[in-house]
Amino acid sequence: MIRPSTILWASAVVVVGYAMFQVKYEVMQQEDQLGRLKHEIASDREAVRVLNAEWSFLTQPARLDALARRYLDLVPIGPKQLGSIAAIPLRGQAAAALSDPAAPARLADLKPSTVR
Predict the structure, then answer these.
(1) How far apart are CA 28 and CA 83, in angstroms?
(2) C-alpha span between 49 and 99 (Å, rounded)
(3) Is residue 80 in some structural domain?
């Protein structure tokens, strides 16, 4: 007949063996996940390097100047585009015009004149 201690030890060996199998399986899954994450990190770093290179190319001053000349039709500001200092209302005039019931009519008088 089998002793109870032999059954106990045999069941302990089976339980420990099963636990070792489970731990090994979990470690293998973790190693696979770590490998995938390392690959993703390397891929993302490469993408960042490519984006930095593209940004450096796209923001070159000479390139931006050529694009601005080609598409924006910008010209230097001429004296006719600037208003005069007299067209800017003073603080007291604007405050008095706002407190008056006829403010809209007075504000129309205080607005800067059109470009000459």
Answers:
(1) 76
(2) 60
(3) no
d(CA 107, CA 111) in angstroms, rounded, equals 6
Distance, CA of 47 to CA of 41 (rounded, Å): 10
Distances (CA, A) of 63 to 60, 70, 77: 5, 11, 23
Average pLDDT per run of 10 along the chain, which is 116 residues long?
87 95 97 98 98 96 93 84 79 67 56 48
As for how many domains the chain has, the answer is: 2
For residue 19, being part of any structural domain is answered with: yes
